[in-house]
Amino acid sequence: MFTGRKEEINKFKDAYKSKSSKLFCIYGRRRVGKSSLIKEFALRTKSSLYLFEGLENQHSPEQIKHFSKSLSTYLNDDVIAKAEFKDWDELFNLITTRILIRKNKQTKIIIAFDELQWMAAKRSKLIALIKYFWDNVWKEHNIILILCGSVATFMVDKVIHSKALYGRIDYEILLKPLEVQEAILFFQGKRSQDEILKYLMILGGIPKYLENINLNKSFRQNIQSLCFEANGLMVDEFEKIFYSQFKEVTVYLKIVQALSIQKLSLNEIATKINIAQGGGLQKYLINLEKAQIISSFQPSTVIYKSNKNIRYGIIDEYLIFYFKFIKPNL
């Protein structure tokens, strides 16, 4: 079931109609539906899709090996699967010779690098190589190239704001949780507005979470199995969000733990977690905002706006619920 994302689909359609190649950068938190969006676009336009996904927390040799296996599957070539590739250049050359050169020039295809931060082993070297192939080879072959990732800090700092891809990205998409009216469609008219509101206050508009609601069970039964049983989807989701997103997890956890109790200013956060309130702390907060976990705001009671009045608070519904109800009962 695919719902919403009309604005994003329209951007893809515009790119598809264009006579030139287009470069997309898509990022957003885990489970928000980035891969599903790409697949849905390919399905609607009946485009050939070559989607390569990075492996979490694996080094470059493992990433290259996994990529080559995916490529061999697309090309139905066992030789590629058994071959030993030393670097990305060889694989990107294969994409060029075996996919792009052989295709009809009038036909647009989609090549997607999903979970790019893992594929690149969280380093910018691969981004520079993608830039080289895009500039010198790929963009001449009428393709849509999609760079997609769930680690916002990497996608923003190493891809969107990188010197390598500066001015080359045609479409930048920050994929956010579904709007309420879009999320309602998951319930197929089988639940009251009051019950749907309860679900959304716990799970937010995250498609993967909503997909796991069993409409044959009651609200209480669903929340029990998702949040309060061993191996429930939402029980260890907290750790997956943080350990896949950030390097210095301990500091981020301390910040979010402090904000789970109340909204705080920069100075109050520094005092609570015993850290200097200089650029270091601000960088942590910026990264949490990029990951759509917290947000900064000026209280409505403040007459004169100032950086001193800025407060930070958690905006992710699941994390708010986790700290209040799941964590105390683990």
What share of the residues does DSSP label as strand, in percent? 5-15%
Question: Would you report the number of β strands?
Answer: 8
Shape, per Cα inertia axes: globular
Percent helix: 40-55%
Question: The biggest beta sheet, please?
Answer: 5 strands, parallel
Which class do the helix and strand fractions yield? alpha/beta
Give the low-pLDDT segments.
none
What's the total helix number?
17
Biggest sheet: strand arrangement:
2-3-4-1-5
One letter per element, helices H and strands E, the order comes to: HEHEHHHEHHEHEHHHHHHEHHEEH
**End-to-end distance, in Å?**
32 Å
Report mean pLDDT, rounded to a whole number. 93
Radius of gyration: 22 Å
Task: Give short descriptive properties of this protein.
330 residues; single chain; 12% strand; 8 strands; globular; alpha/beta; five-stranded parallel beta sheet
Overview of the molecule:
The protein is α/β, with parallel strands linked by helices. The chain has helices at residues 6-17, 34-45, 60-75, 78-82, 88-100, 116-119, 125-136, 152-160, 180-183, 193-203, 207-211, 219-227, 237-245, 249-261, 266-273, 279-290, 317-326, and strands spanning 22-27, 49-53, 109-114, 143-149, 171-174, 264-265, 294-297, 311-314. The strands form two sheets. The protein has a five-stranded parallel beta sheet, sandwiched between helices. The chain is globular, with a radius of gyration of 22 Å.
